[in-house]
Amino acid sequence: MGKAIRWCVALAGMSLALVAAGGAWMIAMPGVAVPAPARVDAADEARLQAQLLRHVSAIAGERNWRRPEALEAAAMYIEGQLKAMGYRIIRQEVPSKSGPVRNIEVRLEGAPGQAGKGVVVIGAHYDSAQNTPAANDNGSGVAVLLELARDFSGRRAAPGFGGVNLVFFVNEEPPHFKTSMMGSWVYAAELEARKQQVAAMYSLETMGAYYDAAGSQHYPLPGFALVYPDQGNFLGFISDSGARAAVREAVGAFRTTARLPSEGVAAPALLQGIDWSDHWSFRQHGFPGVMVTDTALFRYPHYHMPEDTPDRIDYRRLAKATLGLRDMFSSLYLEAGQGKAKP
């Protein structure tokens, strides 16, 4: 009997060790989570705050298959901004419950014959859930992508990459979510059909809520609170376990910018929230995909609510996130040098 008990204890110990090792594997990220001191670029941050507020305010309002006129108005606003930056607009038709809608894409070209690593896709969905003005989800992501496009205008992909594609996706929200009518699904399926290699995909999703109060950050499992902050003041980089390398690369590069606290996790897809954005479509097609987010409903009390209005967003820290991502993407995927950004 004593021997059996010892075996059970040993087995339980090994099980706990395996669980601990698995947990450490999911959360281990390079770099320092909280920069000290954080980098401040006052002039750039002030300019960006005003621009981000303008973009979010311009598209705020329910915009989806039930409100096709508002969805079209948001699409036209995005296209108008991109054209003013000097881009050529590429439209991709997407089916929806109210008729054809579209993804909106612009591209930074790569060097000819140097596309071995594939393309990089940076995306944000511009549609809304029902009964919400969707300022944070996902007006914030759209605003950040527009300002990245402004800073990247005139630049090229770094050697080895086939290009950097900036895509404004439609139909991310229900009832299209996780269906073949999701804009990102249509886009990823076309890449797969063309046998296009994808180096990485980033989904900019619900990015504007930041809180310093203790207890403002929540998690899908209680154990996460033991290793992650209880203050909702960081930017998250999230995907399933199969995209761990992409998450780690992004977190490591973002942390070198020293602008905003950041956390990363690569966890099983069955965990609540891990695949709640357009990166899901890319993962389904075998491409590495990462969600960049403020963690949405785990922090933001107005998620999918009528109260998700432009005044709820922390534009100061959203500007810091934008600058950090600008530097991160530049270091990972773009040739050195400046573009021809317009104010």
Task: Describe the secondary-structure layout.
Elements: H1 2-27, H2 42-59, H3 68-84, E1 90-94, E2 101-109, E3 119-125, H4 135-152, E4 163-169, H5 183-193, E5 198-205, E6 235-240, H6 244-255, E7 262-267, H7 279-284, E8 289-293, H8 315-333
Parallel strand pairs: 3-4, 3-5, 5-8, 6-7
Antiparallel strand pairs: 1-2, 2-4, 6-8
Helix pairs in contact: 2-4, 2-8, 4-8, 6-8
Which CATH class is shown? Alpha Beta
Give the low-pLDDT segments.
Answer: 8-22
Which geometry do the CA atoms define?
Answer: globular
Q: What would CATH call the architecture?
A: 3-Layer(aba) Sandwich
Secondary-structure class? alpha/beta
**CATH fold assignment:** Aminopeptidase
Number of domains: 1
Portion in beta strands: 15-25%
Mean pLDDT: 92
Helix content: 25-40%
**CA gyration radius, whole angstroms:** 20 Å
Number of helices, where a helix is a run of at least 4 consecutive DSSP H or I residues: 8
Strand order of the largest sheet: 1-2-4-3-5-8-6-7
Q: What is the terminal-to-terminal distance?
A: 78 Å
Strand tally is 8
Order of helices and strands: HHHEEEHEHEEHEHEH
CATH superfamily: Zn peptidases
Description:
The protein has an 8-stranded mixed β-sheet with strand order 1-2-4-3-5-8-6-7, with helices on both faces. The protein is built from 8 helices and 8 strands, in the order αααβββαβαββαβαβα. It has 343 residues and is of the alpha/beta class. Strand 1 (90-94) and strand 2 (101-109) form a beta hairpin. It has helices spanning 2-27, 42-59, 68-84, 135-152, 183-193, 244-255, 279-284, 315-333; strands spanning 90-94, 101-109, 119-125, 163-169, 198-205, 235-240, 262-267, 289-293. The termini are far apart.
